[in-house]
TrEMBL record:
Keyword list, A-Z: Hydrolase
EC id: 3.1.2.-
Pfam families linked: 4HBT_2 (PF13279)
Lineage top rank: taxon: Bacteria
Name of the protein: 4-hydroxybenzoyl-CoA thioesterase
Enzymatic class: hydrolase
GO molecular function, one term: fatty acyl-CoA hydrolase activity
Length: 141
């Protein structure tokens, strides 16, 4: 079994993303992750034959490791899948600046959602296939 794929998305640091000190606001950091995640889901699930269904973020943990400034970009957001369950999955985002320094990481727990019943739904086989290509191996140590 080969290494899982990594989905990489490039994000520009926009003029309005930073505060008066020239640092990118932490909420924008999370928006960069969201932007990469949406592109990952729409392109990769479609490539696996799945129509991306409704998803909701149930939980997100973010670790801010290094400030991002106006001059840090373009940023790179690498997306991998950490876990796939019956109706949920966890996506890891790693944000690096133009020099390759890791600025932060974030894990988002997403739940497949049925908009009619307003309840979770099982992931389809096509969704599982799209996510599985990016599934990181479980560490045992």
């Amino acid at each position: 079994m080969g290494e899982p794929a990594v989905f990489t998305y490039e994000v520009q640091v926009r003029w309005g993303d930073s505060d008066r000190l020239g640092h990118v606001n932490n909420t924008r950091f999370v928006e960069y992750m969201q932007e990469a995640r949406i592109h990952f889901l729409t392109t990769e699930l479609a490539a696996a034959g799945a129509r991306p269904g409704a998803m909701v973020v149930r939980k997100m943990d973010v670790e801010f490791l290094r400030i991002i400034t106006d001059d840090s970009g373009p940023l790179k957001v690498d997306v991998t899948v950490q876990h796939v369950g019956t109706s949920s999955y966890t996506i890891r985002h790693v944000v690096t600046d133009r020099s390759g320094a890791v600025c932060g990481t974030g894990d988002a727990l997403l739940v497949a959602f049925d908009v009619k019943t307003e309840r979770s739904r099982p992931l389809s086989d096509a969704e599982r296939a799209g996510l599985g290509r990016y599934l990181a191996p479980v560490s045992t140590g």
